[in-house]
């Protein structure tokens, strides 16, 4: 018989067991903020039509948001992931992430994108119909642990959310008008027109 | 009255005292001052001046360090108020923090409060449809409560009075279940909403999706311009306070209007401890006030007292107003005070996606939702539950979330997210709940707040009827949406505690019989005729329509009754 335990407990344990690092003051060094800018720019690059995540100062945004809005566990997961990205840059590509080519940066992040999807699928398999996690054996837990769980969606969501709520994101990549003056319920739309930022 | 000398009494005497400056208190101030009564408005919180005290009104999303999210500490410090949809970085300063005024939840109750001049009128939902006679007669016809002492015809002219002044947009739809009013032009339906409206009417014949009736100046009249208010600019940032006065609040409308008469005194930082009852005169003579900063007590006196402290706080004040004559709270011979607390069932959400309509979009931010007028249990009980529900609905087209884009990073991924995605259709429910004696508030016998006032104990819960109503909303709305071509329909029951609806009502209800009610048909206490309760506490049942405009309407009606009675020498 499967032992049913609340999902929140499982995920917390997994995050703790997977995190070697502990959050310390000063993690958001200039170097790390630059790294976050580079990661963000790989996900949302500057294009011909609008600036990218770096122009939106995504690293500075992550500093404020992660520090103030994340739980300690979430912060640990976040830094675990950043360290993983650093490790793989140095180990496999023999250089710091910001100095890698776009192709190399993309390769690294896509690996984590894929891992995160697998993690999410494994988690679903281990979750019963009622939303509670079902502990079926040691094997699954180990599979979920391999890359420290779900740090990558955090970084990706911070990038996307931070970019589209930034001034360059909202006003250049999207359309933004704080005070429209009036509301019109039916205006023509043609492919290529930007979405409203708010 | 002890150590207060006669000069003090004179200085502290007004014609009328209004307890609370929110949506109904503001109306009492306006009506009484306009009729020449020197009026003191007591507000327990700080002053908030229109425009001056709206610190976030002109901010852009990137001006907020957390892009309008709450910090972890704010969430941890405020487990109750942080559940409120509007308690965000841009408007959190208009809400009471959890530690600022404790109360005791005997059963889970999320009590959302706004202690400042203007109260919750700054952050309210602004939806303002009229009650119909279906609501006023429902409890009596279907036997789920005591009858209201008034009917739609009693309040209809006062609805008009309020609507003309505050400005309500909407269209005249001729629906018996949602009577028409004095409307400014409505916000347009977008093309998908128009499609939904037509599909629902075609498939059902007697279900009506109509324009929102909302307190926005879509096309201001002279009376609105005279208030210093202007046209709604479709910002949909109302909860911050509006730089244009585009939506109604006490701060932008009734209070400055009352002030212009020269008859208004507003006293912030003044929490009312209790109402003073004079046994010889057999009426209330004033109120005891505690300065929230200095903790000093002061008494103020008046011929008439309006209690508009918000539903539960008005109950608290009356329960705490004890005397030899009224040992259980002012006017509480019936023992009904604090009982039959009710609220609106706001637990349900249902939505989905709809194909097509790719060639249409909208301009500006519609601050309103369309409404599917209640179609349940109107003439007879035609379901397995009692009461009705309003369905709010709308369609929007958000930025494409890029989820399905194969390459989850890079230039093309980014570009895919800069365009609008498919249309989504949403709805949420505002359901009637049935007043029950066991749903009550009472005073703690041992716990007091920092001003020495007993803490309030809340004991309110849902029942089977609420679950059945919610289920019917899910089933019916899914069917209506599916017939209109909405797909991937999903719904959720938030299971939120009572209170988070911010539509708490009752406890001091109106009725004909003093044995089973607290207030008469003019909102005066049956047993203390110069005290009027015209906020949510007066509600004998919840109906399914939004209540705030009814509070304003009942307030205006009661004030004009007071003025008439004063002329006759009866008050």
Overview of this protein structure:
The complex is a heterodimer of chains A (198) and B (571). The longest helix of chain A has 24 residues, at 102-125. Residues 1-21 and 129-148 of chain A have low confidence and may be disordered. Chain A is built from eight helices and three strands; from the N terminus they run βαααααβαααβ. In chain A, helix 2 packs across helix 3 (58-69), helix 3 (58-69) crosses helix 7 and helix 4 (72-93) packs across helix 5. Chain A has one domain. Chain A has helices at 7-18, 30-43, 58-69, 72-93, 102-125, 138-145, 151-164, 167-173, and strands at 3-5, 133-135, 184-188. In chain B, strands 1, 2, 7, 8, 9, 10, 21 and 22 form an eight-stranded mixed β-sheet that branches. In chain B, strands 6-14-15-16-12-19 form a six-stranded antiparallel β-sheet, covered by helices on one side. A three-stranded mixed β-sheet of chain B has the order 3-18-17, with helices on one face. In chain B, strand 21 and strand 22 (528-533) form a beta hairpin. In chain B, helix 5 packs across helix 12 (548-567). The model of chain B is unreliable at 1-5 (pLDDT under 50). The interface between A and B is large, with 53 and 51 residues. Strand 3 of chain A pairs antiparallel with strand 13 (360-363) of chain B, so a sheet runs across the interface.
Strand content of chain A: 5-15%
Gross morphology of chain B: globular
- Alpha-beta content class of chain B: alpha/beta
Radius of gyration of chain A, taken over Cα atoms and rounded to an integer in Å: 20 Å
- Gyration radius of chain B, to the nearest Å? 24 Å
- In round numbers, the mean pLDDT of chain B is 97
Distance between the termini of chain A: 49 Å
| Biggest sheet architecture of chain B | 8 strands, mixed
Strand fraction band of chain B?
A: 15-25%
Principal-axis shape of chain A: globular
The helix content of chain B, as a percent range, equals 10-25%
The total count of helices of chain A amounts to: 8
Mean pLDDT of chain A: 82
Distance N to C terminus of chain B: 22 Å
Please give the most extensive interface between any two protein chains, plus how many residues each contributes.
A-B, 53 and 51 residues
Number of strands of chain B: 22
Low-pLDDT residue intervals, each spanning 5 or more residues of chain A:
1-21, 129-148
Q: Could you tell me the number of beta strands of chain A?
A: 3
